[in-house]
Structures are given as structure tokens and as C-alpha cells.
Amino acid sequence: MEIAVIHCIILGVISGLTKGAGVLPDSPLNAAVGETVMFNTTVTPPENPFILMTWKFGDKNIIIFNGNNFTSPEYEGKITLFMSTGSLELRNLALNDTGEYSVSIVSLGELPMDGSTRLNVNVPFSNVMATASSTDMVEFNSSVRLFCSSSGSSLSFLWLNGSSEVTASDRVQLTDGGSTLTIVNVSRYDQGPFRCCVSNPVSNGTSDPITLSISYGPEDINLTISLSQEYYGKGLMNIQMSQSGNYSCQAFNNKTLRYETSQPAAVSVLERISGAFVTPTTNLTIEGISVNLTCDAAGSVFTRKWMKDGSDLTLAGNMNLYDKNKVLSFNSLKTTDSGEYSCNTSNPLSNDEAKYSLVVIYGPENVQITGPSEIHVGQSFTLNCSADSTPSATYTWILNGTEIHNSAEFTKNNTDLSDSGSYTCQAMNSITERTSTAVHGLSVTDRRSGGLSAGAIAGIVISCLVIASAGGAVGGHYVYKNKINNKAPPPSDNKEKEEPVYENTSAVYENL
Asked: What angle do CA 458, 464, 465 make, to 5 degrees?
């Protein structure tokens, strides 16, 4: 309210500025009806007395002094003339006292002094009031007209919005001398409060405020989610998978009749992972075949991570991952692919791990026989057969073409010369249905003769040749080593001719 009054006072001062001249003040005098005004001259009391003073209102004389005072009848009792300076007091002002006042003063022996000024007599304002054509509006759709009324004279009008002066613009119009304010397509910032400031040179005042109700929106809609998180577990607060999606809210203003929709907020409901498993395309994981391991689980699986024997899986040349790591494919199994494979399935809320032990079935291969190559009659010997095979191979022993035993270990006690020969170990894998063999030569010698009979040696050679021939017929291969050393017999009392000593080291073949 104080700011409004200041504005009005400034307006009143500005509106009263005019020009005076001579011994009277330059600025006009402003007074209210019924008040008293003093027309003060700039004359100082002279050394010589005034011999003539004349005051006029327009062309009409007010008072003339030429030794005697002559006062116009209508000013009797209303004026006082101050003889020392020539100033004039005018009382009980009326509106018709407004006009130009002039004075002429003559001193003895001095040039005449003249001056003029204007007096404005105003009726003070009263009953200032502001009204509005409407106070309930819709933003951008409504216009309003504010009216300011007041009694008084020479009134000026100023509109205030809050503490700021309202000025004309493309939406704001000031008409009827500023007493009418029109706002077109109101905005929310036009709500006020509006005050009308009324002033004239002798008074000023401000109306009571008017506040406009301007409906707007909706706008700036913000959708928030309690317990906000990126993913929600199925069953939490009874949330179901079907409730996943983008949610928006829509606001409606029944005054503006406008709708506004918020930005969507995503709600993702996930089923916790359980029951992870790894399944192969076949349980007969035989070396050389292709096989796939499939990793899956119940629930919402986001990622799958494979490991082998507790370490991150490094893909070998025969491995590939498909379908977002769901399928681990081996295009040709190798024995080095055997191991424990684990697949960890996860989503942002849970995880589960499944394991699968992959055993690559292969063999038999690398068949080996260990045992003596030469013993004496009457001694015992043991031959052991081994092969690389998964599952373990079964073994069959053959001596000189005749099956003699079914076990990895063959033992013979109290040997005689007939036990000499080529011992064949045949290893077989019941799943791969593959066989592989090795041959071991054994010489049984007579302590007395120091060697084998010619018949025993011939039998060993014939057996080896038969086996070699059989290996060639089935597409296999064999290695035959026969080393015959003619050694001079040790000294003996027996003068009979001694037979040469034959040393049979080994004979091996494999049927692939």
C-alpha cells in the first residue's frame, strides 16, 4: 500500500508543473477547495514606500493600492494584502478560483515590477474503487476488464499489479484516461492483486486490491513409484508378470477442460530363477561326435555364464556358444573336453547354478604289456595289460592264436617250454566297440640246455607270422621285432653239439 501511495504522490507532483514569471514563483500553485493559498512575491521591502500595487485574476482586478485599498466586492473578506512585500493571501478557495494571477508593483523612483503565476484549485479524490468484469477465468482463453472510479477533479489513474506498474503491451490496454485496464488472453501471472491509484495535485489514494482466479494446467505432471526400483520380483506385494509395462498417469482440469499425460514409468516384474539344469543332446558322448549342452532354468533368465572345472570357460576350436549362451556346442568331442561344466543363470533379482559332468568316451588306445621276456622252466611269470580307455577296457589274452585268459593280468606258475610264444592282449571298449591289441614275446628256457628247442622256436615264429598275417587282413598294423643271437654255449662237460640260443623280444600290433 505504501508503494501505491508513493506512485500516486509522484503522479500528483508531475501533473502540477507549469511555468511562472517575474516576481512570482515559476511553479504554479495547487490547492484544494476550501483551503488557503499564499501568493508570495520575491520582492524585499523597499527603502521607498510602494506607491502602487495591483493584483488581477485574469483581466479582473482583485485589489488596487494607490495610497488607499480598493478591493473588488467578491473578494471582500477573502483576501489579505501584505504591504511590505506585495504578497497576497487568498482564502476559502473554490473551483472557479483556478486561473492566472498577476501583480504589478511600483516603488517611488523605481521601475515597475511585474509577475504572474497560475493557481490550480482541485477537488480532493474520494471513494476510489476498482471493479472487474470477471474474476474467474481460464488461462489463454479469457479476457478481463478492470474499471477504476473515483470522485474528484483533475484525476490521474495508475494501475499496479502487486508492486509493479502496469504498462500497455500487445495484451494490455489502458483506456479512458487510464481508468480502464483490459487484459486479453490472461495468463497465470495476471492474477494480481491489482490496485488502482488515483491522484491529483492535492490528493492521492489507492483502491482495495482485486485478485483474479485464473485456472490453468494441468502441466508438469510427474509420476513417481513408491519403492522405486528397476525390477520387481514376482509375488512382491502380489505383483504378477502380466503387470509389467509402461505406466502413465493422466490429469484433467475441469475448469480448463484440458488433459495432460505424464511421461511413462517402466515397471518390470521378474520371476525369480530356480531349477537350473544342463542337458546334453546325447548321453553317449563318444570322442569325435558332436554334442550340445543346453542351459536353462525356470524364471526370467537374463544372462548365462559357463565355467569348466571351477574356472571361466575358454572356448576351444571345437566349441561355440549359441542363443545368448544358452547352448554350448561341441562339433567334435575331444578327450580334453571331459570335465565338470557349470552354467550360472541370473537376473537382477536372483541366480541359480547347474552342473554337468562331461565324460568323453574313447579308446581303447595305447595298449601296453609289461612283464618278463625270458624265464626258466619251472618259474612263474605275470603279464599286465593296460590301455587308455573310458570306460575301462576289457582284456583278452591269446597265446599263439588260442584264447587263454580274460583279465588285464595273466599269471602262470611252474612254466614249461610250451609256455614260450607270442602273448597277445586284446583290449575292447564295450561302448565305442573298438578294439586294440599288443603282442609280447616270452621265451621259456631250460636251465640245462640254456636255450629253446628248435621246435619251440619254430612255433614262436609261426605264431608271429600268423598274427602278422591276420593283422594285415583287417587293415591293422603290427611291429615285429625278432632278434636272434648266436651265442657260444658256456663250457660244459656235455660234449654233444649244443643248439643256438634265440632271444624273442616282442611283437605288437594294433587293430584300429
From this structure: 90
Domain region containing 22: 2-122
Distance CA 252, CA 162 (A): 30
Please state whether 324 falls in left (phi above 0), alpha (psi between -120 and 50) or beta. Answer: left
Q: Is 223 within a domain?
A: no
Residues 350 and 371 in one domain: no
Query: What DSSP assignment string belongs to 170-200?
Result: SSEEEEGGGTEEEESS--GGG---EEEEEEE
Sign of the Cα torsion 224, 230, 231, 237 reads: negative
Q: Are residues 434 and 497 in the same domain?
A: yes
DSSP 216-275: ----S-----TT--SEEETTGGG--GGG-EEE--EEEETTTTEEEEPPPEEEEEEPPPEE
Number of separate domains in the chain: 5
- State the distance between the two ends of the chain, measured CA to CA, in whole angstroms: 114
pLDDT tens for the 512 residues of the chain, in order: 444 443 443 343 333 333 335 899 888 999 999 999 999 999 888 777 889 999 999 999 999 998 888 999 999 999 999 988 999 999 999 999 999 999 999 988 788 899 999 999 999 988 999 999 999 999 999 999 999 999 998 899 999 999 999 999 999 999 999 999 999 999 999 999 999 999 999 999 999 999 999 999 999 999 888 777 878 888 787 888 888 889 999 999 999 999 999 999 888 899 999 999 999 999 999 999 999 999 999 999 999 999 999 999 999 999 999 999 999 999 999 999 999 999 999 999 999 999 999 999 999 999 999 999 999 999 999 999 999 999 999 999 999 889 999 999 999 999 999 999 999 999 999 999 999 999 999 999 987 654 444 444 544 544 444 344 333 333 333 333 333 333 334 444 443 333 333 333 333 333 33
Establish if 221 belongs to a structural domain: no
8 A C-beta contact, residue 82 and residue 105 = no
Helix (H) or strand (E) holding 276: strand 274-280
Residue 266 and residue 303 in one domain: no
Do 369 and 490 lie in one domain? The reply is yes
Query: What is the reported pTM?
Result: 0.51
**Residue finishing a domain among 342, 358, 374:** 358
Cell reading at 422: 607270442
Q: How far apart are CA 268 and CA 349, in angstroms?
A: 11
- Residue 220: inside a domain: no
Q: Do the domain assignments include residue 418?
A: yes
Domain CATH number, residue 350: 2.60.40.10
Rounded to 5 degrees, what angle do the CA atoms 176, 177, 181 make?
60
Of 408, 401, 440, 438, nearest to 512 by C-alpha is 438
